[in-house]
Amino acid sequence: MMQHVQVLGLDRTLDAQARVERLVLDHQTRLARFVRRFVGDRDIALDVVQEVFLSAYRVLCGDPTRPLTAGWLYKTATNRAISYLRRHKRMAEVAPLEESAAPFRLDERSAISLDLQTALSRLGPEQLACIMLTAYAGYSSQEAALMLGVSPEAVRQRVCRAMRAMRRTLEAPE
Amino acid sequence: MKRAHAAYEALAGAILLGEASAADREAYAAHAATCAQCERDIEATGTLVSSAFAAAHHSETWRPFVRDEIDARIARRRSLSMRRITTLLSAAVAGTLALNVALAIGIGPHAHRLAQPAAPPLSAAAQPLAATSVAQPVKVAAVGSLQHPGGVEPARRAVPARKHSAARARPESVLTVDPAQASAQQGPALPAILVTLPLSSEPLERGRR
Questions:
Q1: Residue A97 has pLDDT above 50, yes or no
Q2: Domain of B141?
Q3: Which of A162, B32, B125, B202 is 20 to 30 A from A125 (CA-CA)?
């Protein structure tokens, strides 16, 4: 029986599923919060996180020995979130009324959390990715550069611009 | 100038992220003193944004649970891939079986025909003769023309048999075709002289010489 399982590659899929379950248990909460801050919507964040873990499963089915770290999960989540924001922006350009009718949904009702979300929502996807990976997720500019495929100087520059823009938003009177 | 300013922006980003050295900070401070665009109090910006992130972290209450959904999607995906593998295997087995059956009952006896180039079409009258050559080689010895309703068919010249060929080793025989049967199968009856033919061309060859 075990031989048949190995021949069909089922042992790979079972092993991959076990490893994905471990990744899910370890990272689902932090990753989902990260993506929700990124895209500003809980349901979309859940969709993105599920897609990230399914991508991990596909990768592990193809190469069971590949080490998948939290960095890989954040990188994949960031890329998917950027894709979503770009698509959403294109759709908003086509139908601006629908965009205004889709407010951010957050669990937290604290003012600082909503202000932060407002400040983040005004950033472009590239600046948002840099600031989220460094200031929120705690990666260094070198690690963020590796994840995003840009130079560390570009990451630092975007972080600088993003933080300046956020300061203006956070300090602006309502 | 613009490039130099971008370099100082990167330096400011390093200061904001806490990655800059003391020399970097001094270099940025010296630049910011002369630059209108660069903030002199860059540290204040970092403090404000960092405290906003920290407060947001602290107030997070959302605890998502996506394990069940992911398990369900993985199970669905696995059953789909299993179904695909089963379908592929079934198709391969069915194809092999079909090929075996075709070779055994259909294509096998006629396979050598498929390999040979197509012969020129024979007339209706010559077809019964040609049909016999499948089971046993027949040498057509008639010289002249075969008259038949469809037109004039040029007769085949006799081919001199080689001395040591396998055809010469075979016993001489005479092909006899029942005219009634031939007419029933292929149309009008042939003249009686053409119906009964010697299978060897040697007597005719000798006579001609």
A1: no
A2: 127-208
A3: B32
